[in-house]
Amino acid sequence: MQFIESFDLMSFFDTMVSLAAAFVLGTAIGAERQYRQRSAGLRTNVLVAVGAAAFVDLAIRLNGADGAVRVISYVVSGVGFLGAGVIMKEGLNVRGLNTAATLWSTAAVGACAGSDRLAEAALVAFFILSGNTLLRPLVNAINRIPIDEGGSEAIYEVRVVAEDAQVPGLRDRIVALLKAAKYPVADVNLEELPDETSAIVATLVGTAAKGKELDAVVAQLRRLPGVTHANWEASTTY
After folding, report:
1. What topology does the record note for this protein and the membrane (predicted)?
2. N or C: which end of the chain has fewer CB within 10 A?
C-alpha cells in the first residue's frame, strides 16, 4: 500500500502541529467575527485557516518549497472568490468588505501555519484581531467627526419637476445651467409623474460639491417656465 510506504511519523506529527495551530488561530479570529454576528463567523474562518494550512503542508511534502509557493498563490486567489460571496450591495451601500478581508487574511494565517512558520502565523492572527477590535474605537471616533458637504464623496442628483409640455426644452437648460456652475452632468433621466408632470433627474459627474453652489443653481431652475419644483440631494457612497 502506498500509505505504508509513504507514511512518516515525524512528518505526520509536523502536519498535525501545523493544522492544530491553524485551527486555534482560526478559532480566535472566527470567535471575534461570530461575536459581532458577521456572515462569515467562527466555523468559516476556522475552515479557511485549516484548509489553507493543509494545502500548503501537502505541497511542501510533495514538492518542497517550490510547490508550496505555487499553492499559496492559488490559495490567495481562491479565497478571494470565497470572500466575494460575503460582499453584498444594497443600493449605494456595500456590506461585507471587512468580513471578506478577514477571510483573506485568515488564509494567510493558515498558509503560514502550513509552511511551519507558526510564529509568523500567530503574529498575523494578532494583527488581524487588533485590526478588528483595537481599531474599532478609532473608526467610531472618525465617523463622528463632521465634514462639510464639499469634502464628502457622494453621488449628487438635481431633480426638477415640470409640466410635460415644457420638459423637452428644460432638459438642455438644466444641463447648461449646471455646466455653467462647473458641475457637468453625467446622466439625465426622465420620470413620469401624475397630473401631466415629469421629473428630470440630472446626475452630476463630480463626487464632491458645495451646498451653497447647488442651492444657487436650484434657485435658478425654480424660476424657469413650467417648473413646479426643484431640489438636489446627495447619496453617500462607500
Report:
1. Multi-pass membrane protein
2. N
